[in-house]
Amino acid sequence: MTTRVACLGDSLTRAQLSVDYLELLERRRPPRDVRLARFGVNGDFAHNLLRRLDAVVADPPEVITVLIGTNDARASLAGYPVEQVMKRKRLPERPSAGWFQQCLGAVVARLRAETDARIGLLSLPVLGQQLDGPAARASLAYSRLIAEVAAAETVACLPLHERQTEELRRADAPPVAYREATPAAGVGVLLQRAVLRRGLDTISRRRGLLLTIDHIHQNSRGAARIAEVIDTGLLTRGG
User: Fold this and answer.
1) How far is CA 107 from each of CA 60, 145, 218, rounded to the nearest angstrom?
2) How far from the centroid of its chain's Cα atoms is residue 135's Cα?
3) How far is Cα of residue 167 from the mean position of the Cα atoms in its chain?
4) pLDDT attached to residue 196
5) What CA–CA distance (Å, rounded) separates 99 from 184?
6) What is the pLDDT of residues 170-227, one digit of tens each?
7) Selection from 145, 110, 147, 161 nearest residue 8 by Cα
8) Is pLDDT above 80 for 139?
9) For residues 201 and 149, what is the distance between their CA atoms, to the nearest angstrom?
């Protein structure tokens, strides 16, 4: 029997600027074992995800994964254009850790109330490549908030941040300084792909990055960890 899986998230799930972890997840499963539905919107915060759950609960799947919070965490960093993003994403209040946790809790509460799905919250991908830097520390702090929501709502917490941290340490990745991704930088990546025919992994390698294209969006290695934690932590165990 085919298991229907809804993957909720932001640009990492939309996969325009990241390697597609849904495709990698499907490859890990036997043929026709899963049918994946993509619910990813670029730039979304937990608040935005909360407001677009109707399409998910209208046709409830058997499994739901939630990968959200990277933009909430980025908003806590110096240099992030909070005011611009608040207008663009129509946020009713300034992003904060407390508001993120409140919105994520509401997401899970609605999914639990209106579906019978197995639900897994992923901790965040590591921001940047300096584990002692502000960006990586922010992704760790928000990952801990995600774990608290998962425990309170009694749903699975899938250890993506932990796996990526282990990989960065094991590979002794060079400490490339974090740079906040901008819309112009995203266009630059798309142009490199379209004009120069460079793949995302090539762009990543040229920048000295192990798991990401631009400290945020995932290359094949980073996306593989997302697929892995969903498969081993939710699909295989839940099946």
Assistant:
1) 14, 14, 24
2) 15
3) 17
4) 45
5) 28
6) 998 888 989 887 665 555 565 555 544 568 898 888 889 999 999 999 999 999 999 9
7) 110
8) yes
9) 33
**3 state SS for 39-70:** EECCCCCHHHHHCCCHHHHHCCCCEEEEECCH
Q: Tell me the C-alpha distance between 102 and 96, whole Å.
A: 10
Token reading at 209: 């990055």
Phi, psi dihedrals of residue 155, rounded to the nearest 5°: -120, 170
Q: Lowest-pLDDT range, 50-54, 95-99, 133-137, 191-195?
A: 191-195
CB contact set of 21 (below 8 Å; sequence gap of 6+): 12, 13, 15, 218, 223, 224, 226, 227, 230
In eight-state DSSP terms, residue 127 is: P
Name the one residue in this structure whose structure tokens are 């409830």: 60
What is the side-by-side order of every strand in the sheet holding 118-122?
34-40, 3-9, 63-67, 118-122, 156-158
3-class secondary structure, 10? coil
In the numeric block, the tokens 């000295």 are attached to 208
SS3 73: helix
Note the pLDDT of residue 199: 81
Which sign does the torsion angle of CA 11, 222, 98, 134 carry?
negative
Q: Which amino acid is at 219?
A: N
Mean pLDDT of 105-130: 97
